[in-house]
tRNA modification GTPase MnmE (Lactobacillus selangorensis), 159 residues
Amino acid sequence: NGLATAIVGRPNVGKSSILNHLLQEDKAIVTDVAGTTRDVLEEYVNVGGVPLKLVDTAGIHDTDDKVEKIGVERSRQAIHKADLILLVLDASQPLTAEDKELLTATENKHRLILFNKSDLPAALTISDLPDVAASDVIKVSGLTGAGMEDLAAKIEGLF
Ligand code: GDP
Ligand code: MG
């Protein structure tokens, strides 16, 4: 068992890369093709001493693809069922409509917001998220692994 934790974010923000860092192995498929993660992937991992059941999701976006549609529906269910949300944003890009939709969809959940791609020049700051406490935002990089210890410490601090 473990605390149900959903990694959410629009396609290509780096959810699977972050999951792989947390798992320290390459189970999720990482590519630069949007929509690669079509299904939901569950993994059990200890982060900051807290046992998590991590659920990697396909994101929430409009699509005509039949298989992708099922992934999006499962992502909505994963958010609904989760005890903790890790909402991943691409901090090298301005917020998109889908980011804002996810911020709203998760605002009443236990939530940490990951500013991913922090190895790139920043396009996002905490002031772009007026309803979010600075202490709930963590800068990370799914590419270099930067910030993963901060994330673990934050999760540990929640419980
Ligand atoms: P997902 O669709 O949200 O699961 O995103 P992926 O983990 O598959 O990553 C999408 C693309 O972004 C891949 O080309 C990754 O190598 C790249 N990527 C992920 N995290 C980072 C990061 O922190 N920095 C940079 N520069 N690229 C990243
Ligand atoms: Mg993915």
